[in-house]
Design brief:
300 residues; alpha+beta; 23% helix; globular
Length: 300
């Protein structure tokens, strides 16, 4: 350290101030030297846990977030809910007989006719009593509320209709007939059951069954108050088995060979989950008849 000549002989007080400054400077130099050594150790990547601890004390600590607790299972995450899907809304098609279109120039509304509320829909009930021929199917539908953990919906009315074994619809292409149409009200389990036949396959459409859901029987019989209009897709393997009987289903096998679910103008744009739910599960044989079940998901 350099001292100015004028620093000499200025008295004890002056000398003490000079010594104090000298001590402070030496302390500062010692601290700088220690910090440089510490930085050098850190730069060399020391594996010492102690060195890492020292470095940590010179940095701002980053808090470690607490793990997010896993929520307890609820009804909405149950397997029942996971399998509950909102049914796609589909066209009623050209033959609904629900008052929304006309046939032969007049409005066709079978929902206002006496006798439409029935479980066995195989026979005509208006001008004739013809029974539709074909493989018997007992179809049970379960109506659930997708917004309430798939709770069953009781007291709702379901109107169901489909073509006959030759692809004709009663009141339209089979104008004299009123078969294969009926309304049922869901019970406390949200279920209705229809006894019908396996529909035929007509050209250009995947085999299907139409239905409309109404919030009450009164709304159903009044017409034009449907909460949901949709369709059920028939399973491919069952179609192939049933249509192999060309005596009962004369044109279905050839028509079925030309259609695909993925390109159908109704089912083709649905999600896989929707089409899975909208395809009933069938058990049985053509000879003994089939039992079929399906879930209908409604957003109430």
């Amino acid at each position: 350290m350099h001292y100015d000549d004028h620093d000499h002989d200025l008295g004890l007080a002056h000398d003490l101030q000079v010594m104090e400054r000298l001590v402070q400077r030496r302390r500062a130099l010692k601290w700088v030297a220690g910090a440089g050594t510490l930085a050098l150790v850190a730069g060399c990547g020391s594996g010492s846990g102690e060195a890492e601890t020292d470095i940590a004390t010179t940095a701002t600590a980053t808090p470690t977030p607490s793990p997010t607790p896993t929520p307890s299972p609820t009804a909405s995450s149950s397997s029942t809910t996971a399998g509950c899907v909102l049914n796609a809304s589909e066209t009623a098609g050209p033959y609904p007989a629900d008052g929304t279109n006309s046939s032969s120039g007049s409005t066709s509304n079978v929902l206002t006719a006496t006798g439409i509320v029935r479980s066995d829909i195989r026979a005509s009930f208006l001008s004739t009593s013809t029974v539709a021929a074909g493989v018997q199917v007992t179809l049970t539908l379960t109506l659930v509320d997708v917004n309430q953990s798939c709770a069953p919906l009781a007291g709702y009315a379901i109107y169901l209709w489909h073509c006959d074994r030759e692809g004709h619809y009663s009141l339209y292409t089979a104008a004299a007939e009123s078969y294969l149409r009926g309304v049922q009200v869901t019970d406390s389990n949200g279920q209705v059951t229809f006894t019908t036949i396996f529909p035929g396959c007509y050209d250009g459409r995947w085999p299907h069954i139409h239905f409309e859901v109404f919030s009450s029987l009164a709304n159903a019989l009044g017409g034009r108050y449907a909460a949901l209009t949709s369709q059920l897709a028939l399973p491919s393997s069952t179609c192939a088995t049933v249509y192999a009987d060309t005596a009962t289903y004369p044109s279905s096998a050839s028509n079925f060979a030309r259609v695909a679910l993925s390109s159908d103008n109704v089912f083709g744009d649905n999600t896989t989950a929707q089409n899975t739910q909208m395809t009933p599960t069938f058990t049985g044989t053509p000879t003994a008849g089939y039992a079929a079940t399906a879930v209908i998901g409604l957003a109430r």
